[in-house]
Each structure stands twice: as C-alpha cells, then as structure tokens.
Specification:
This protein has about 600 residues and is α+β, with helices and mostly antiparallel strands. Helix content is about 20%, strand content about 35%. It has eleven helices and 36 strands. A hairpin with a 5-residue loop joins strand 5 and strand 6 (about 85-90). It is globular.
C-alpha cells in the first residue's frame, strides 16, 4: 500500500461513524499457548475483515495468518508441542466438516484425522507425544462417537452413544481420556466417564442419579503433571458451578468450598500446585489464585468489568481478556502489559451500564441498561435479548448495543430465567414452558422500563439473535400489544420444523427442555413455537437468517415468513450465505445498517 493510499484509507476510517468503527476495529481473542512450547500461541482476529486463526511466535514477535476462507474460521487447537495447528473445515458456516492441520511455521494443510468422515464436531484433545488425538464427532444418523487417532494408523472408535457426548480432556501422559456424556437423556446435565485409550472404563462420576434433582458436571482438565491422575471438575452440588479435584485412580474427591457467591470456574496453573479461579457474579467477573496445599485464596487484580477468558503462564503471570460496557476488550497481563494490541483503527468506547433489579414471577430479575449520555426519558428503547439460552449478558463491551445507543436509543438487556450466572435453580427453571417463562421476565422488566420513565411505550423494539431471535418472534405473537416492532436474527421460528432439521446435539437439548420430541409432547412444542402465534403479530417484523445455519435452519424460517406473507403482515427478510451468524465484518455491518434503517423507518 502506498503512503497516499494509506492516508486515504485512514481518512476514510476517521470519517466513519463510531458504531461502524467498533465493528471494523481489529479484535483478538485470548491467545492459546502450547504447554511444551509456551512461546508458540494461537489466536483469532478480524484483522483482514474476516475472523481467522493466527499463529504467534512470541520469541520473535512474528504473527502469521493460518486460515483464509470466505466465511471465516474460529475453531482451532494448538498441539501441546507447538508443532501443529488443528482447525475445523466446514462449508460456509454449516458446522459440518473435518479437522485439518497445518505446521506452526506454515505450509500445506493436510487431513488431521484421515479415515473419519465429515460430521459435526464433538470436541478434540491433542496428546503431548505429537501423534495422538481424541476426536469427537456427531451425525444425525449415528449419534456421537469418539475416536483415538494416531499418525499413520487407522482411527479406533472408543465410545459411541445415541445421546450427545463430547471429548473432555486427555491426561498428561495420554493414558486417560475424560468424556462428558448424557446417556441418561438430560442434555443440560452431563455425567463424566474416564476411559483408557482402548475404551475400557476407569472411573465414573455421575450427579444425575440418586437424588431428587439432576446436577451437572463438566471437565475442566487433567493436572498438567506427568503421572498425575487428578481431574479438575466443575459441579453444581450447592446450587451453582464450583470446582472439585477428582483423583480418578483413587476415587478421592476434594471439594473446594471457596465461599464465593456466584458461579466459579477454574483451570490449573502450569505446575499443578494451584488453580486459576474465575468468579462470575451479577454480570461481572474477577480472578483468584487458589493454592491447593494451603487452601489459600488470593485475588488476582483485574479492573471492574468482565473477564471473558484467562490463562496462567509458566512464569506465574496471568493473561486475561477483559472489557467493560464502556471500554473495548483487550488482552492484558498481571505483569501490567497489554499482551496483544493489534495495529490499526482503535475502537471507540461506549457508555457504562446501569444495574436494575426487577421483581418478577420467578424472583428478582437482573437487567443491564445503557442510554445516551445525558439523555432523559422517555426514550425509544431496545430490548436486546441474549441467545443461548444458557448464557447471560454482562458488563462487557458489545458493539451491537453501542450502535443503538449512538442512534439515540436506550438499550435494556435482561438475564431472564434460563440465564447462567445466577445459580442452578435460575438456569434450570427453563423447562417445559420454554420461551414463555423467559418472556414473563422480559415483560416484567418492560413494565419497569415504562413506569420508571426510561422507555417510550410507543417506541419499543424487541430484538435478539439465535435464542434471542426466537424470543423476539415468540414475544411479538404472545405479547402483540407490548412491542412496536421486532428484529430477529437467526431465530427459531417454527419449533417443530426446526427440531427435525437442526443438528443432533440441539435435538437432544430440545428433548431435555420440552420433555420429549414433537411427536411425544406436541402440545408443548405448539405452545412454545412462534409459528403458533404468527397470526396475532401486529408489529412490523424484520428477520435475518443464514441459509447454511444448522442451529436455526432456513426452512423453518421460510415457513414463518410464508405465514406473514399470506396475511399481508409488514415484514422484511434478509438471507445471507453463511451459517449461524457471519464472521465477515462487512456482512455484519451491512446487517446492522439494515436493522437500524428498519427501526428508523417504522418508529418515525
């Protein structure tokens, strides 16, 4: 690029509105690093305008783009010896494909697991010997299977079940494999099994049996020490996620009661003597170091806001991806350094969030509110509903809500029942009356927003993506007088058709949420499907959908749109060539422009 062209590009960037700069500004993920070659790292960045994988040699400072695909790549794993980068190769975002690998230094891609046909991924764990991996795969016809893959040998199947499962981790010496499974049929609460490389069982841990309530378990990782048989596990035994250490050889369980009020996650420090604790509570998070010998819990200093990921380095420092609603994300270190600071346009900040607690039918509901600086209500207000549903909004930087604020809207985000971060009872409340429960909580916060003077009841937008898009369409039909317009991205629109067309793992989740298949509990699917209420929709509707989406497939969206068309309802539809959302910056900006324009035209 010539200097004049570079200056012109910089000038064009400077002339962009802030909301567009936020999407275009280079972003990076928390770097993953090779356990036996810690100077070698792998991260995701949108530096080229598409999210792709990058290799980073910390010793030389060299960064190299690993993947280059039209619709982007984000699923990648770095081998423990730092020699190979595995990446998942699907077609245009359909999530159905195969693993490939590329030398860290660069070179041609090659099949990483020859002999395994294309499938949906179900986890992968790479061995320290440089030639062993455990690969999980699932298909609609066969369920889930796990395979031991060794260079130069045919893959060996070590596990298969009709219900969903996944690879948890591979022990330091490669002699033990941890599996998360849902053979009991509850896709929301996994049990654990540890097997040898030949598939024979070593140990079981199952909190879904023997009690009045089914509780979940998750694999957090084997101890990073030669010959160590300790497995770090997450559990829900006290009504929230907490860690315990399970020695799979002796069956000894060491429960860590950390006396922290929110959900607690953990990972090992590289020497195996301590745990890096991530504590999430009321939409914020903080870090601690827990010493396993003394039981001492020591806070790792981070700014107020949200830590989206953290890792302990061999020198004892901690790197973490941090942001707040007002400040864009950055990869920081406890050494005081900014670990990754991509060159180019810097993202403008936004306004901070305000916490609101509203009494709802199932308990106190936490909502996060942003509004233009100095603005007083009543304001046009956007209820931006998160996906998941097992997810939650937090005090973290998000370009989408910031764009609405820039255009004069207040933004309300609701952590409805079903959201994580508020205890197991809050998350597990989302069963059988799926969608309707969440909308009861959203309605309670809507009532507060109007009665408090924040929101103009004549200019209320209901919007969201994925599960948030589903709740948008369901809300427009079940609460037709509450919303002025709706904007749904990659939504579930026709629940029955979505079930039959979606990937197998999501079918298992839907069976758990609704208590069976559409044939077994037709009344529940009907009650929870936006298509059931489409004729009651009064507000203008905007829908965007990826034509290759395996999670919210396009056929069920088309069914809903045809019903809107048949009654002459005001609506617009935008279809794009990708899967469950886009990894291309220009495409995402285009979608936001269309949403903002739709709202402006219909709100006046």
């Amino acid at each position: 690029m010539t200097e004049s062209n570079g200056s012109a590009a910089a000038e064009r960037m400077n002339e962009m509105p802030d909301w567009e700069k936020r999407f275009r500004a280079p972003r990076v993920s928390l770097p993953d690093w090779a356990e036996d070659a810690p100077d070698r790292s792998l991260f995701v960045s949108n530096a080229t305008g598409t999210y792709e994988l990058y290799a980073w040699d910390r010793a030389t400072g060299e960064q190299r783009q690993v993947t280059d695909r039209p619709n982007g790549t984000t699923d990648g794993v770095l081998s423990p010896d730092g020699a190979w980068i595995w990446w998942f190769d699907d077609k245009d975002g359909d999530e159905f494909g195969v693993w490939r690998r590329q030398p860290f230094e660069g070179g041609a891609d090659e099949p990483a697991a020859p002999g395994l046909d294309a499938s949906y991924p179900a986890g992968v764990a790479l061995g320290r010997d440089g030639r062993t991996a455990v690969v999980g795969r699932s298909t609609d016809d066969e369920g889930t299977s796990l395979h031991l893959v060794r260079t130069g040998e045919d893959p060996v199947e070590i596990y298969r079940h009709r219900e969903s499962a996944g690879v948890g981790d591979l022990s330091h010496d490669g002699s033990l494999i941890a599996i998360e499974h849902t053979e009991h049929g509850d896709a929301m609460h996994s049990a654990l099994r540890v097997v040898r490389p030949d598939g024979t069982a070593v140990a079981e841990l199952d909190d879904t049996k023997g009690g009045a309530e089914e509780l979940g378990l998750e694999v957090l990782g084997f101890a990073p020490v030669v010959g160590d048989t300790r497995l770090l596990v997450g559990h829900q035994r006290r009504g929230r996620w907490e860690p315990l250490v399970w020695d799979v050889a002796t069956a000894e369980e060491t429960d860590l009661d950390l006396d922290l009020p929110g959900d607690v996650g953990a990972e090992w420090y590289p020497d195996g003597t301590g745990l890096l604790i991530v504590h999430s509570f009321e939409a914020r998070s903080e870090l601690f170091r827990y010493d396993l010998a003394s039981g001492k819990l020591e806070k790792v200093p981070t700014p107020p806001g949200s830590v989206s990921g953290a890792t302990a380095r061999p020198d004892g420092s901690v790197e973490y991806l941090w942001s707040s609603a007002a400040e864009p994300s950055a990869v920081r270190s406890t050494t005081g350094e900014v670990v990754l600071d991509p060159p180019g346009l810097k993202s403008p900040g936004s306004v901070p969030v305000e916490d609101v607690w509203v009494q709802g039918p199932g308990g106190r509901i936490h909502a996060l509110v942003q509004k233009p600086a100095g603005a007083t209500g009543p304001l046009p207000t956007v209820f931006d509903i998160h996906g998941g549903p097992t997810w939650h909004d937090s005090d973290a930087f998000a370009a989408g809500p910031a764009a609405w604020v820039d255009h004069g809207y207040a933004v309300v985000r609701v952590n409805y029942r079903g959201s994580t971060g508020y205890g197991r009872e809050w998350t597990d409340a989302l069963k059988h009356r799926v969608g309707l429960i969440e909308l009861e909580d959203i309605a309670a916060v809507r009532e507060w927003a109007v009665s408090s003077g924040l929101a103009d009841p004549a200019r209320l937008v209901l919007t969201g993506g994925s599960w948030g898009g589903y709740l948008t369409l369901l809300g427009l039909g079940t609460q037709p007088d509450a919303w002025t317009l709706g904007i749904a991205a990659v939504p579930v629109a026709d629940y029955v058709t979505a079930y039959h067309d979606e990937m197998e793992a999501l079918k298992a989740m839907d069976r758990t949420l609704l208590g069976g298949t559409p044939e077994e509990v037709p009344e529940r699917f009907e009650a929870s499907s936006p298509l059931t209420y489409v004729d009651q929709v009064k507000a203008p509707v905007y829908i965007s959908a990826g034509v290759n989406d395996p999670r919210c497939p396009i056929r069920q969206v088309d069914n809903y749109v045809k019903r809107l068309e048949s009654r002459g309802a005001v609506h617009e539809v935008y279809r794009y060539d990708a899967g469950h959302g886009s990894l291309v910056v220009d495409e995402r900006i285009k979608q936001v422009k269309l949403e903002l324009d739709f709202a402006a035209r219909h709100l006046g």
